[in-house]
Design goal:
By secondary structure, this protein is α+β, with helices and mostly antiparallel strands. The protein is 24% helix and 40% strand. The protein has 3 domains: 5-85, Immunoglobulin-like; 95-162, Immunoglobulin-like; 169-225. InterPro entries: CD2/SLAM_rcpt (IPR015631), Ig-like_dom (IPR007110), Ig-like_fold (IPR013783).
Length: 225
């Protein structure tokens, strides 16, 4: 805030609705006035040291727009200013992964935890592009690729070794297609064989039925005579 402000009255207001009901906190002689502080209630990590407001263990709720008023011991305002506070989570561990597509593109992904992340890439030390969490490369690209991630509070980087995407040769593709054709052919032959056995069985059963009826009819004729 200001050097020597312990001799002044400090009032900090967090502007939420821009009304008199916005939370505030009042400090006098470097001490928080608990009866006039609904902004930092039950937060012992908020202190005043040599006129500076110090908040240890800040959290995202501390982000926002503030107004600072400083009064002299005669309750006369000597300063008023606005302050914007942005709290960001630091960068976590950086992870880099690779996916090879059938269209011949190698896509490299970069991920990390944190707020307001900015990405940048280098291949063998040469910059590639900034701002995106993924990058497309030719499938034959080889070398060391690095992803750097940063925000306002920290920075981290991960480097991995690229390997060309595996390419299927024409002979391998031919063998695979040939095997698939054989599988389809054997499947059709098997189905035809089952169909023929089923049809043949029905024919034999029909012949037996006709023979039985013929014999029964012949026996009845013999009895009548």
């Amino acid at each position: 805030m200001m050097l020597g402000a312990t001799n002044y009255i400090l009032k900090i207001i967090k502007r939420i609705n821009e009304t008199k009901d916005d939370p505030f906190c009042r400090f006098q002689h470097g001490i928080m006035e608990e009866t006039e502080c609904d902004l930092y209630n039950n937060r012992p990590e908020v202190t005043i040291i040599r006129g500076m407001l110090i908040i240890n263990h800040v959290n995202r709720a501390d982000s926002g727009n503030y107004t600072l008023n400083i009064y002299s011991s005669q309750i006369r305002q000597t300063f008023e200013g606005d302050l914007q506070v942005i709290v960001e989570a630091p960068i976590g561990s950086v992870e880099v992964s690779i996916i090879c597509s059938s269209s011949g593109v190698m896509r490299v992904f970069c991920s990390s935890e944190g707020d307001q992340l900015l990405y940048s890439w280098t291949l063998n030390g040469d910059p590639l592009m900034d701002g995106n969490s993924s990058i497309d490369l030719d499938e034959g690209t080889d070398g060391d690729i690095s992803c750097s991630v940063k925000n306002h509070v920290s920075h981290a980087q991960k480097t991995i070794r690229l390997k060309p995407c595996p390419v299927c040769s024409v002979s391998v593709v031919f063998v695979v297609v040939w095997c698939l054709q054989l599988m389809v052919l054997f499947g059709l032959l098997g189905a035809f064989h089952i169909y023929m056995r089923h049809t043949s069985g029905k024919k034999k059963e029909g012949q037996k039925m006709r023979m039985r009826r013929f014999r029964e009819g012949h026996e009845h004729t013999a009895e009548d005579s």
